[in-house]
Structure formats: structure tokens, C-alpha cells
Amino acid sequence: MVFRTDSPFHFPVQIEPDSEIRSNGSTDDRSPSVLAWLSHEVFRKDCLDRKLEKHHITGIAFSGAVGIGLFSTSGEIIALGGPIGALLAFIFAALVVFSVMRCLAEMVSVRPVTAPLIDFPHTFVDEALGFTVGVMY
Q: Where are the strands (E) in the chain, listed by range?
């Protein structure tokens, strides 16, 4: 492999040793060079629409955090319990979440209140738990 170091992009451009560089910047008829590719109209400043808003950045950050957490946690669970253990753990967690949501839905239908996640622990368990859930929520 031979590298050209006269590239204006501060990285060497790889060319084949037997190919010659043509006047249009390509090394042969089939593959254009990196310079020709980067000079395409899509990469010009006036063609790119650079308008990331707050909700775009929040979505990128949220999906990155959830994705990394999900993959690292899944890897730890699979390493500890194997694939069957991980599957059983996720099924158990899903059943617990499903049961809690069904219970909340039934309680809301029987006793409709403004803030059920704060009022139900306060009423049915303890006032301190209702206060703690209110502060944490």
C-alpha cells in the first residue's frame, strides 16, 4: 500500500501501488478517491441542515443512557445466570411490573383521585410512605 500525504484533510489517502492518479482525482475508473468523495455537494456547508433542538439532544442522550445500561446489565445477568437464568429473571420482573400496573389500574377505577401514586401509599400503607413517594416522585 502506498499513501499520499499531500492531502488537505490531514490524513493520508490510500492508493494502490500500480494505479496512477488521474486529473479528476480518482485512482482508476471504478473507484473515486477520498478527495473526490469528500468534495461531493452533500458535504458542503450550505447543503447541511444543522438544526438540533432541545428534544433531539434529549432523545439522543436518553437513548444512549438506556441502551448502555440495558446492554451492560444484560451482560452481567447473562454472565451470572446464563441465558436461561437471564430469561427467567426478565420474565419474573415483567410479571411483577405487570401485576403492579394492574393493581394500580384497579385501584384508580375504584377510587379516582388526582394524584394516585402519592395518595394510595398515604391512605393504604402509611403516611410517611405517602410523603416519601411524593418527594421522590
A: 2-4, 13-15
Give the Cα separation of 13 and 6 in Å (integer). 8
Distance in angstroms (rounded) separating the CA atoms of residues 5 and 21: 14
Neighbours of 118 (CB within 10 A): 19
- At position 79, the amino acid (one-letter code) is A
pLDDT at residue 114 in the model: 86
Let me know the angle formed at the C-alpha of 69 by 68 and 73, rounded to the nearest 5 degrees. 120
User: By the 8 A CB rule, do 79 and 71 touch?
Assistant: no
> What are 99's three cell numbers?
401485576
Measured CA to CA in angstroms, residue 105 lies from 59, 91, 92, 114 at distances of: 29, 21, 20, 14
> What is the DSSP code (8-state) at residue 43?
G
- The chain-wide mean pLDDT, for the chain, equals 76
pLDDT in tens, 112-125: 888 888 889 898 89
